């Protein structure tokens, strides 16, 4: 992949991230020159947390992930990043323990090893969000109690090599690459039924491109493959330009098993997966079929993908949670490509 291809992948990724996150959470980093630096702002400690410690008049604490897109990303190297987390308590600086910095670096490196050659910022953000909730928040609260010190944290990125993924045109091989392998430890009973599939009553049409959503209630990853195969029996759907999808399953103990596939529409699968997370939809599969009309839609295509899926999910009662609970954040499995 050359520099121009990398640049296009980066631009597409930024469009996807902007469609998932609000502009006060994800925004250009104006502290650095150029247009290749962006910041994610994560809430860590708020007024309620300080009140629980009996501390008054404390400012909320945020952790910032600064991302720098280099020319070799995503073909050869991951983005460069640093994590900025600064605050004071009673005039004393507070700092994270070194173990948190090492753990974040390890998590990011593991994700790059799993998805090397592909865009991975969304995966990093999800991993860091989960780690803040599961470990860092409580660690910082303990540090505040002890009045330890803190400053900016700069985390190194390990250099790794990448290999290009191969695609197969046969249906079974396509399904294999679409996360159809079960990553659950739950036993799957025999004769798992094909779920009932619902499709949009009205498509979204823009400049001759047509978008239709399909959803199904599922309990096992095995059913993802069943639903995809059933939908592709429809020749019109099978011949569509893209059939991107995502799924989210709550397993025993509240563990969330999730995955997505772009089907050639780079970033679309992540958009759908992000949507399911935002509304905290569980035990559901969603696919969006797009027939390209010959006119490029730019970022509007991601808006239509999200809107047509959200409309169908809402019609069937999946839009009811405003935010994820603690169990979801701390117990999540990510399917790998």
What tags apply to this protein structure?
337 residues, alpha+beta, Ubiquitin Conjugating Enzyme, Ribosomal Protein S5, domain 2, 2 domains, four-stranded antiparallel sheet, 10 helices, cytoplasm
Structural class, please?
alpha+beta
CATH class of the largest domain: Alpha Beta
CATH superfamily of the largest domain: Impact, N-terminal domain
Largest beta-sheet characterization:
7 strands, mixed
- Percentage of residues in DSSP E strands: 15-25%
**What is the approximate shape?**
globular
Supply Rg.
21 Å
Q: What is the CATH architecture assignment of the largest domain?
A: 2-Layer Sandwich
CATH topology-level name of the largest domain: Ribosomal Protein S5, domain 2
* Count of discrete domains: 2
Counting DSSP H or I runs of 4 or more residues, the number of helices is: 10
Tell me the total number of β-strands: 13
Poorly predicted parts: 148-187, 321-330
Overall helicity: 25-40%
Q: Report, as a whole number of angstroms, the end-to-end distance.
A: 19 Å
> Would you tell me the overall average pLDDT?
78
SSE arrangement, N to C:
HEEHEEEEHHHEEEHHEEHEHHE
Pfam family, one: RWD
InterPro entries: Impact, Impact_N, Impact_N_sf, Ribosomal_Su5_D2-typ_SF, RWD_dom, UBQ-conjugating_enzyme/RWD
Domain RWD: 12-135
Keywords: Cytoplasm, Repressor, Stress response, Translation regulation
Structure, briefly:
The protein has 337 residues and is an alpha+beta fold. The chain has helices spanning 3-20, 47-52, 98-115, 121-146, 171-177, 222-232, 235-238, 268-278, 300-315, 326-330, and strands at 26-28, 37-45, 61-68, 80-84, 88-89, 92-93, 197-199, 204-206, 209-217, 242-250, 256-261, 284-291, 332-334. α1 (3-20) runs parallel beside α8 (268-278), α3 (98-115) runs antiparallel to α4 and α8 (268-278) packs across α9.
């Amino acid at each position: 992949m050359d520099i121009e291809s990398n640049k296009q992948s980066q631009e597409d990724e930024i469009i996807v991230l902007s469609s998932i996150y609000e502009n006060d959470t994800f925004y250009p980093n104006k502290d650095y020159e150029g247009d290749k630096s962006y910041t994610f702002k994560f809430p860590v400690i708020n007024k309620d947390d300080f009140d629980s410690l009996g501390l008054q008049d404390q400012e909320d604490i945020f952790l910032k992930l600064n991302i720098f897109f280099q020319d070799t990303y995503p073909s050869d190297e991951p983005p460069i990043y640093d994590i900025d987390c600064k605050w004071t308590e009673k005039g004393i600086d507070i700092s994270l323990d070194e173990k948190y910095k090492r753990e974040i670096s390890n998590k990011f490196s593991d994700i790059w090893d799993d998805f090397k050659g592909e865009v991975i910022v969304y995966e990093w953000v999800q991993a860091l969000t989960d780690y803040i909730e599961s470990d860092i928040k409580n660690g910082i609260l303990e540090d505040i109690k002890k009045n330890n010190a803190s400053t900016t944290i700069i985390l190194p990125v390990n250099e790794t090599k990448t290999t290009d993924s191969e695609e197969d045109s046969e249906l079974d091989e396509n399904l294999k690459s679409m996360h159809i392998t079960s990553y659950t430890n739950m036993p799957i009973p025999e004769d798992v039924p094909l779920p009932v599939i619902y499709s949009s009553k009205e498509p979204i049409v823009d400049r001759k491109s047509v978008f239709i959503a399909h959803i199904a209630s599922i309990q096992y990853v095995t059913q993802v493959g069943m639903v995809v195969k059933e939908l592709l029996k429809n020749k019109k759907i099978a011949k569509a330009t893209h059939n991107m999808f995502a799924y989210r399953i709550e397993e025993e103990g509240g563990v969330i098993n999730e995955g997505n596939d772009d089907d050639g529409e780079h970033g679309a699968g992540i958009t759908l997966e992000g949507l399911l997370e935002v509304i905290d939809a569980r035990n559901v599969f969603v696919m969006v079929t797009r027939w390209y009309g010959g006119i490029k839609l730019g970022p509007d295509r991601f808006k239509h993908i999200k809107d047509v899926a959200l409309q169908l999910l809402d019609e069937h009662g999946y839009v009811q949670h405003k935010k994820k609970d603690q169990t979801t954040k701390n117990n999540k499995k990510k399917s790998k490509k």
